[in-house]
Amino acid sequence: MRGRTAEDLGLLELLDPVAEAAGYAVVRLRLMGGEHARRLQIMAERPSDGDMNVEDCARLSRAISEILDAADPIAGDYTLEVSSPGVDRPLTRLADFETYQGHEARLELDRLAEGRKRFKGVLAGVDEGQVAVDLEGEAETALIPFSWILEAKLVLSDRLMKRGADLRAARLQSDPQDSQQPTSE
User: Fold this and answer.
1) Which residues pair with 30 in a beta bridge?
2) CA 70, CA 93: separation in Å to the nearest integer?
3) pLDDT tens-digit series, residues 82-97
C-alpha cells in the first residue's frame, strides 16, 4: 500500500534508507502520470511523533533530490512533491491501524469480502496480521487480512481533529520554538 506499482516499490527501496537517515519515514509514494509531466508524490512523517512540517518537507525533499539526481531512476522529466500525510491520512502500514485505533476509517480491498470491497468503520486494533474494524451496522468486529487492503484512509471527524490539535499543543508546550512563525523580510 505504500507503493502501488513495481516502479513505486523500486523507488521505495531506493528512498526508504534516505528518508530514515534524514529522520523520516515514508508513509506513501506514488509516481503518477504518463511519459511526460510525471509527478513523484511522497508523503512522510517523523516516526517519533508523526508530524511533518514545512521545514521537514524541504529537508527531506533536498535529501531525496540528491539521490534521485545521482541514481536517475525515473525516465524523463518529473516533479517531486514531498508532503505531510495530513489529518485524514492514508493508512499504509500495519502499525498505522494500531496507532489510529478508535478512529473511523474507509478501507478498500483487493477482493470481495462478504460481497463487497469497500468498508467503513472504527478501527479496533490489529490481531496477528489482521486489521480489526467495528463496521457500521455489524454486531461483531471484523478481522480483515492486512494483505487484502488495497487502500485505507482515516475519515475526517471532530475526534480526529481534536487528536491533531492535542498533539500540536503538546509539541508546542515541550518546544516553544516550534510555535514561532517564519517571517519574511
Assistant:
1) 41
2) 29
3) 999 988 899 999 999 9
Question: For the segment 75-84, what is each residue's pLDDT rounded down to a tens digit?
Answer: 889 999 999 9
Profile the chain (185 residues) by mean pLDDT over runs of 10 residues: 93 97 97 87 93 95 97 93 94 95 96 94 96 92 96 93 82 64 41
Asked if residues 136 and 106 have their Cβ atoms less than 8 Å apart, the reply is: no
Per DSSP, the residues of the chain read: ----SHHHHHHHHHHHHHHHHHT-EEEEEEEESSSSSEEEEEEEE-TTTS---HHHHHHHHHHHHHHHHHH--S-S-EEEEEE---TT-B--SHHHHHHTTTSEEEEEEEEEETTEEEEEEEEEEEETTEEEEEETT-SSPEEEEGGGEEEEEEPP-HHHHHHHHHHHHHHHHH-GGGGPPP---
Domains of the chain: 6-83 (3.30.300.70), 94-159 (2.30.30.180)
Cβ atoms of residues 153 and 88 within 8 Å: yes
